[in-house]
Amino acid sequence: MGIDAPRAPLDKSLLTKEISRYWRVSVVEVTGSTQDDLFQLASTGTAIPKTILASEFQSSGRGRLDRTFTAVPMSALTFSIYIEPKADKQEWPFLTLLAGLSVHEALQLLDPQTEINIKWPNDLLIGGKKFVGMIAQATSKGVVLGIGINVGMSEDELPVDNATSLAIEGFTELDRNVILATIINHFEINLEMWENDKSFLAEYRFASATIGSDVEVTLPDGKVLNSRAVDISNTGALILASGEEVTVGDVVHLR
């Protein structure tokens, strides 16, 4: 399937058949942001755990650090999920890394020949170019994870120069229904194992493009750190050779 493959719509009935019966999926044609919509429901106690909200087009999509996310209708896979983890709340920060790792592993299952790496904490890269971004927000009872994947975008549809898409990279599976179902099924397995105390640090380190790289990290207060990324902590913080542990920040890999 190449770049010119049809952009098939998301199919709720098909997705429901392919994922666990414990998940509830909704598909909307247009919304401002699946993340905002689902976070609002979760914050008011009206979202059921293991809810998936996907959209064909987001007019106000957003990612980490208040960045915007835009995509031509049906060219991207944009969705949010709500979970109530069976783990202590202080452990929840690692869920952002677990989500990134789960998407990474699911996509590698679909196409083992395409090398995909993770840029801390959960951006996915092919050849150093980003094609997946994520955002996580905690409520009193759970976490809403928002995921955006550039699937069928052509080069002139990319939001920024350092981005790419699965279609551009010749990925063998471009059906967003298959991709979404594979991600949900894989994340569900990883989440259950994590809730039962499995550590995913080794798997994350193996997939990381950040560990071992010289990096420039911009912290929320504007401070810039230049060092070498050497490891990940148990809670998902990026450990630098200079001694700092970064929990929130914008990472640039230095060449």
From TrEMBL:
GO terms, molecular function: biotin--[biotin carboxyl-carrier protein] ligase activity
Keyword Oxidoreductase: no
Pfam families named among the record's database cross-references: BPL_C (PF02237), BPL_LplA_LipB (PF03099)
Keywords: Ligase
Domain BPL/LPL catalytic, residue spans: 14-195
InterPro entries referenced in this protein's UniProt entry, alphabetically: aa-tRNA-synth_II/BPL/LPL (IPR045864), Biotin_CoA_COase_ligase (IPR004408), BPL_C (IPR003142), BPL_LPL_catalytic (IPR004143)
Any one of the GO CC terms: cytoplasm
NCBIfam families: birA_ligase (TIGR00121)
Name this polypeptide is given: Unannotated protein
Protein source organism: freshwater metagenome
